[in-house]
Specification:
By secondary structure, this protein is mainly α. The protein has one domain. Helices cover 75% and strands 0% of the residues. Helix 3 packs antiparallel against helix 11 and helix 10 packs antiparallel against helix 11. The longest helix is centred in the middle third of the chain and has 30 residues. The protein starts with a helix and ends in a 32-residue tail after the last helix.
Length: 336
């Protein structure tokens, strides 16, 4: 029994560290909208291709030795690597274009808000994983909070209230594409990690492949990035800080918590973006928006508070941050 409780404590600590890493990544990602306002002449495709493309190639370069050592395992799981790479390439193009067409609030809410249910569906269909009641409660709070943030900006006359209905509908559609592709590459990285591929090698391979796919887009649309030192600085910041550093932290988290939990924790990103818009850009956030931020913080508290161990069982289950049914040795986790 003591050994079981000790193992549970170790898993809980690992899950807590993973959740913290994802939250830190979300804070970095929340700065991208404010950074993009410093380069208004750079289009959404160029911003997305520069941020994720250069950041992905940097991931691959830093993890080059680990990728080389894991090349046989990666080659055996090439369909998963390909799914992840395509997701990495499509996500930034859909995400930034969604914000450009439908407004920052609507684009962000649709893109990030659709990722947790998409992740849960992928995990359910591909891995047979059941969702805990804690995750369902946390996801409901987080989604409600992001919707309130969106409504607050719309009521306040933010960018979501401008443009034609057709542009908004297209932006919402691209936001859904962003959410699904985000969930897809997060699942692919997590699957590689749980199939004995080191986290840095998995992240480097998937993001490096996605970065290569984005190079033609960057070549075709990236001229404004070299038009001024400010534009170049914004592109470099987006690639190195939110995308490279943020996804190093995200990969660390994916090695320790389920994809559905990780994508739900990233609902912190729009809250951070809203606060920075108030403090740095000078936008105003009404009470409805602050209520949304409070709900997002409640979601994070629900998902990151450790569960108390069950004393009446000889083998206590893992914390809610972990999958409900962990694969056994020689089972699905050992298959490509």
């Amino acid at each position: 029994m003591t050994g079981g409780l000790g193992a549970r404590a170790t898993r809980t600590a690992g899950a807590g560290a993973g959740a913290l890493a994802v939250l830190l990544a979300s804070v970095l990602w929340g700065t991208t909208g404010t950074a993009a306002t410093l380069a208004p002449g750079v289009g959404p495709l160029a911003i997305g291709a520069a941020a994720m493309g250069l950041g992905g190639l940097l991931q691959a370069a830093v993890a080059g030795r680990r990728i080389a050592r894991s090349r046989d395992r990666l080659a055996a799981r090439w369909p998963t690597v390909l799914v992840g790479g395509v997701g990495v390439a499509l996500y930034p193009l859909a995400f930034y274009t969604s914000m450009h067409l439908a407004g920052v609030a609507v684009g962000t809410v649709v893109s990030l808000g659709s990722a947790p249910p998409a992740s849960a569906l992928i995990e359910r269909l591909a891995d047979g994983r059941r969702l805990s009641r804690r995750w369902l409660a946390g996801a409901a709070l987080g989604l409600a909070g992001t919707v309130l943030l969106c409504a607050a900006e719309a009521v306040h006359g933010g960018p979501a209230g401008t443009g034609s209905a057709g542009r908004t509908v297209l932006g919402v559609g691209l936001g859904l594409v962003a959410g699904v592709t985000y969930a897809g590459y997060a699942w692919a990285v997590h699957r590689l990690i749980t199939r004995d591929v080191p986290a840095r090698a998995a992240m480097g391979a998937v993001f490096g492949l996605g970065g290569l796919m984005l190079l033609p887009v960057l070549a075709a649309t990236g001229a404004p990035l070299t038009a001024s030192w400010t534009n170049a600085g914004v592109g470099l910041y987006m690639a190195v800080v939110p995308m490279f550093t943020g996804y190093v932290l995200f990969g660390y988290g994916l090695a320790r918590i389920p994809v559905s939990t990780a994508t739900t924790l990233t609902l912190l990103e729009p809250a951070v973006a809203a606060v920075l818009a108030v403090l740095v850009v000078g936008e105003e956030l009404p009470a409805l928006g602050w209520a949304g931020i409070a709900l997002v913080l409640a979601c994070l508290a629900v998902l990151t508070t450790p569960s108390r161990p069950a004393r009446s069982r000889t083998s206590a289950p893992g914390p809610d941050l972990l999958p409900e049914s962990a694969p056994k040795s020689g089972g699905a986790a050992s298959r490509p």
